[in-house]
Amino acid sequence: MTRRRVILELGTGNDLHGGDYTKAALRAVQDALHHSSLTLLRTLKVDPRTAMHVDVTIGVQKPERVDADAVKASLPHGIVTVRVVKGGLDVPDEEIGDVAVIASAGIAVSLDLP
Predict the structure, then answer these.
(1) What are the pLDDT digits (tens) for 14-40?
(2) Which CATH number fits the domain that encloses residue 82?
(3) Among 13, 28, 100, 108, which is 20 to 30 Å from 61 by CA?
(4) What is the Cα gyration radius of the chain?
(5) How many folded domains does the chain comprise?
(6) Other beta carbons less than 10 A from residue 19's beta carbon
(7) Which residues contact 91 (CB under 8 A, 6 or more apart)?
(8) For residues 24 and 59, what is the distance between their CA atoms, to the nearest angstrom?
């Protein structure tokens, strides 16, 4: 058996006030999930809880401020790994000393296939 990527979904999320990188990351993951349906897994009669490998990559300007465990816990199925890298976008509002945080998420789903 070889692990093969069968689904790739992308999402974006933001926290417009407060600079919460985890909130932006969670919203990016939810955006990606809402673009996807797991009908392929049902068709193949695959149990998504045990056979699906889910690799999440989050891009934000301050990766160290993302709670990767919270992101992992937000995924409903699969064997999940989360990697947080530098990316995304911060849009400062210098007038009020705030920042809008924009996160990007890539979610890759792999299965062990012959």
Answers:
(1) 999 989 999 999 999 999 999 887 788
(2) 3.30.1330.20
(3) 108
(4) 16
(5) 1
(6) 18
(7) 99, 100, 102
(8) 10
